[in-house]
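Complex 632.
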Amino acid sequence: MDDGSLFSVKMRASRQDTHVSGAERIVSAKAVPDTARALVARALSHSKGFPDFISLKVAGTRGIMRVKAPAVATEHASSPEEGLEIAARLLRESGVENASAIVAMMPLCRNMRGAMLVDADSLARLEPDHARGVRVSSMDAAGLQGRLPPSAKSHYAEAVVLASKVAAAPGVIAEICISDDPEYVTGYVASGTVGYRRIDCMKRIGDPTGGRIFVCRGIAGDPSPTIRFLQETPVLVDGIPSLDSSATGPSWRNSVDSELASIRSAALWRRTQVHCKPSGTAATVDGRRLSVLSSNGYLNLAFDHRVKAAAAGAALDYGAGTGGARLTTGTFHIHAELERRLAAFLGCDAAVSFATGYMANMGAIQAIAGKGDAILSDELNHASIIDGCRLSGADAFIYRHCDMDDLRAKLSACGGYRRRLVVSDGVFSMDGDLAPLPSIVELCSRFDAISMIDDAHAIGVVGATGRGTAEHFNCPRADVTIGTLSKALGAEGGFAATSQRLASLIVNRARPFIFSTSPAPASVGAALAALDILESEPWRVERLRGNVALFLRELASRGIPAETQSAIVPVAIGDEARALKVSAHLMDMGLLVSAIRHPTVPRGSARLRVSISSAHDPSTIVAAAAAIASAL
Ligand code: WAQ
Ligand code: MG
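Predicted structure with magnesium ion bound:
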């Protein structure tokens, strides 16, 4: 390659003078147009928001320096404390006697855009701007010439490029780095002696503090040549090892790490979030009091004192657990009572209860359909339905979302099967729309098929008195209605309400029913009390509907398109990383609104999922709509 024909293409994007995105590539003249286009596209689709200013600088590079990437190895740490100890040891091996003191300076990097330049012996800080630090630029990986830059940012490759240039800077003897990404706890120590040593745990997940220190020797008198080199000398880095090739240790650990890395780079990383002092509509998360707008507790009955007292009372009367499966010693008086009440509430012959709603879908589907049967399933059905189809061993046919022409065509092609089962969410859990129940029931009777509707998000929400989609449409029920006790009813567990015939089949066949300990008495007692309240205080459902209407009006008045037929209001975003950022931004404003991403919804259709409760204050709902409008 002729170095004289290389160009640096630099992009910087900002919005209202706040940095949004920046990147640089060093490429051949021929690749400049494609690279420029790709960098601008990256700026326009950045998760931090839509820029109002993009600068693109294309400059010939003179005196480009080629640097070889160091050897790469990964150190496994089981805690941040161990990770920091490993870092200190590696710095010591690199000739830094004050290693522990340097490691202890890392928290001072908080909020710096660049790195500290620290004298190894005096620990003096040599960078002129302590708030900003020294930002390294003018560097790229060799061998990318003519190829488009990767759109998903790779922490690893970018860090190796930077570390390679830093290691070549005059007077720099070692570097220590911790990522500032709250979900990425990896960092490294790099030096001529130890190479590039990744350390896989240097901070707690969720911690947004990262930083870099370049440890120097012999430049305290005049650090400016080093700083100039870091900022200006163009460097191309050769031979960046693939991450897999650098792996050490047992191969299962490396394969797990690379799977986790791919989840992370697709912005699909998930972790649990601890809620303290939950009230249903508020909780303290990471020390901040937030309004919760993503709970399935549509009527907030989990926090009704009568429901809580019933849970406690049932535990006192019947024990904390049952110690048996439903068909052995685990059916108590209250289990039978709950099933009788659920059947009566929905106007069915019988109900079979399960420990969770997920198990109710799995079990009912697997009991009714098996090898030699056909299941026709809406493409947006909940994961528990999909898993039920898999568990059943039946042939599954997916019809287009709520498309009755497609369902009819598929039903008419399934004549040769022993049984046909049509299954659909009643309220679709990520879109909030309703299945066309009257048409489904009608098609099933025409084609001799069994109908099953999962009203998990409908019971307590949809229909004048919260009896679900059949009440909403004023039409016959499906052959099987699946419901949950865990959402509007505020307890835990699921059920199938159906005919005596199908109930008997479920009891005899459903593996999640047969092979699982029966629901705990506290859950059953709570569900019974919640059912009493739902039956005697239907105004709660009316109040929920009023809150939903208020939220939709408030969004519409701010130009945000959103629709729902239930209490679930999706706000479309698209890009996964952007959905996460918007959700994080809302958290900063005191609102907990979940970002929903693949595999819960298709890739590229990430969204906010707001769920409204009857217990939300109108002022909270108005504030939430305003916050969402400002965060989008
Ligand atoms: N020049 C100097 N310092 C920088 C620069 C730069 N160009 N970019 C970032 N920093 C500083 C800044 O203080 C950041 O807070 C800190 O470094 C961390 O930056 O799997 O992602 O971009 O082997 O978060 C290391 C492990 C990932 C990668 C490093 O750094 C791996 C990373 P981040
Ligand atoms: Mg970062």
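The chain is about 35% helix and 20% strand.
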